Amino acid sequence: KASEHKDQLSRLKDRDPEFYKFLEENDHKLLDFDASDSSEEEEALHRPPDTLEVHEDEDEDDEEDEEQKKVKRKKVSFIHVSLKMVEGWKKAAQRNLTPKLLHEITQAYKAAVATTKGDSGGDPSKFQVTDTAVFNALVSFCIRDLFQHVHQLLLPRAPKNKLKMVLPSTSPLWGKLRLDIKVYLGCTIQV
């Protein structure tokens, strides 16, 4: 390899004399090397030291401690969904579905669907569904009844022309409800 390198440098002197002159002025070590030096370096193997030093950075430890505390807080702050909560959501949705209520219902629905995947990580929800009766009540409510309430919230009046399809994105509430509807539809597809 050393002899090939010397040949390349000699050809460089003929092909690009300006660059060769630049190398002589700025990086003279590149041009003057011994073939014996490079062969010794190639033959020598790197041997790691017997003991390795561990770099401890106090800032990283503090960040890891803060992250662990946040995870612990998130685990503690789960709201367990009960049958009473589901029944309350049903009644409130029948009376008047609001964007805030829809958000709570979709987050609980998302937590219920996450249990079917066995997904404990990912995008955490503030709700947790552990009871099968609560799961069944919540999922059946979301699949059977919630869509009608969302439709009434987005399009409170029937269109004048029954043949013309009205898009939900024309509603003034679409901006507030768009993400919750996306979660709702994604969870329904998952179920």
TrEMBL record:
Family statement: Belongs to the NOC2 family.
Keywords, ordered alphabetically: Nucleus
GO BP terms in the entry: negative regulation of transcription by RNA polymerase II; ribosomal large subunit biogenesis
Entry superkingdom: Eukaryota
Ranges of Basic and acidic residues composition bias in the record: 44-54
PANTHER family assigned: NUCLEOLAR COMPLEX 2 AND RAD4-RELATED (PTHR12687), NUCLEOLAR COMPLEX PROTEIN 2 HOMOLOG (PTHR12687:SF4)
Region annotated Disordered, chain positions: 31-71
Chief place of localization: nucleus
Keyword Nucleus belongs to the record: yes
GO molecular function terms noted in the UniProt entry: histone binding; transcription corepressor activity
Record-linked InterPro entries: Noc2
Composition-biased stretches (Acidic residues): 34-43, 55-66
GO cellular component terms listed in the entry, alphabetical order: Noc1p-Noc2p complex; Noc2p-Noc3p complex; nucleolus; nucleoplasm
Signal peptide: none
The keyword Nucleus belongs to this UniProt entry's keyword annotation: yes
Protein name: NOC2L protein
Subcellular location field: Nucleus
